[in-house]
Amino acid sequence: MDDQELELLYTQQLNEELLHQTREAITRLIEQVPLEFGLENLIPINPPSMANVPEKLASLYQEVCEYYNSNAIDFDHAWVLASKYGTEQVINATNPRAKKAVKQIYLEDLDSYMQWFPWTWFSNLQFIGAGGFSAVYSATMSPPYDVQPTQVALKIVDEKLLNEIAVQSKAFLPLLFQGLTVCESTGDLMMVMKMSNDGNLEDHMHEYPLGDLDLKTITGTILRLAQNLADLHKVEMCHRNVHPRNIMCTDSDYFLVDYRYATPSKESSSVTALTKAVYGRLPYIAPEVRRGVYTEKSDIYSLGVIIWQLVSKVIFPSPDVLLDGGVSSSSSASSIMGTTMVDPSDNPYRIDPVAGVPEWYQKLYVACLEPRPENRPDAAELCVVLQAIHDKLDYSVPLDRRVTEYIVARRAEAADHQRTYSKVKGIVSASNSRLYTLANLPSTEHFISLQFRHIPFAHAMAPPTTTTLPLE
């Protein structure tokens, strides 16, 4: 046995011993004070045999983490209750309202991703909205081993949300998902997520003055979003509801969220065709969806709209504008199959070229919005091409003043439209996701005034040949 084999054997033995010792130490602590971990229904409560529980927890946590780090081994936070007490016993010890969800977690083999957070660690709950059909709360989480409290979001787990947990676990769970807890008063199982402290991407698009009109910043944002989709598509899942309000901003980074309607890629079209319905937001729904077809390229279409928005800053109004025939006060409308058609040059939904952006950027969003899905890039291909461009850009590349002029003009049009339309229909809100039948799904293709090349992405997107990219 050579030195390399000996080193490998030593590392494996050290890892196993560290894992065994850590689990034993944690188990002893939990069994001494199960109430502190919200596990009194699972483990009988004995008189506490140790004082200063928070200090002991903090000390244990810090010592274990330091010992692992000093041996160049990651600390394992996995949920191991079932291996110690048995799956059925854990499920039976759960609050009755949460049993079905916990059972599903084990059936989906998600328990290895779970962290358990006692309800007593949470305070200052405030209702902040409803994500689809699940209530979402902000809260302060104060683990006894962490000196600094953490702001988190709590979301009630239902069957749709279990699908979201499954998708995030398989793709990129560490980004936003942290663990689970059970509400003490209602018994609901709740997902613990990092609180987005910077709002969502649409919030950023509303900002003025326009501080992010820098090409290096924009391409970096697109790269992170494309990578999010690449991770999801790699595990053969389609998101099915990509839009700017489902892109959360945390610590100057962007994460795709809301996987309630995500489906396996091979089933997405059959689900759409069978239900004859789609849940989504206009105009981010790809044209082929009207025919009952949904693939990973349909997610790319949605991303293409966002890529265009990152330089146009256009915020689309409520779909009621389309459904009611009020897209433009000055347009001549005719009804075709129940859907109002209008002059595409005069409406708040139009997508046209933005003067002043580089040619390669125009090609990028045009390729993603190609009418035929097979001509659009896949997410991994998009990452490769865009990374090469991003790396060659200077540290800061301000966009041409014509981009700002375009943004100002479109915002003035939007304000005028809102004033006109609201006189008839009342306040015009932003576009929202909603359930459409395929028969009543409005088409927005005729609002896109772009020169499509109708060729595959590999041919449409020529790589840059110079290290300095022109602005036009």
UniProtKB/TrEMBL annotation:
The entry's keywords: ATP-binding, Nucleotide-binding
PROSITE patterns, per database record: PROTEIN_KINASE_ATP, PROTEIN_KINASE_DOM
Entry keyword annotation includes Cell membrane: no
Residues given in the record as ATP binding sites: K155
Gene3D superfamilies found in the cross-reference section: Transferase(Phosphotransferase) domain 1
Entry's Gene Ontology molecular function annotations: ATP binding; protein serine/threonine kinase activity
Database matches in InterPro entries: Kinase-like_dom_sf (IPR011009), Prot_kinase_dom (IPR000719), Protein_kinase_ATP_BS (IPR017441), Ser-Thr/Tyr_kinase_cat_dom (IPR001245), Ser/Thr_Kinases-Pseudokinases (IPR051681)
Domain of life: Eukaryota
Limits of the Protein kinase domain: 122-393
Protein name, entry field: Protein kinase domain-containing protein
Gene: ABSGL_01165.1 scaffold 1223
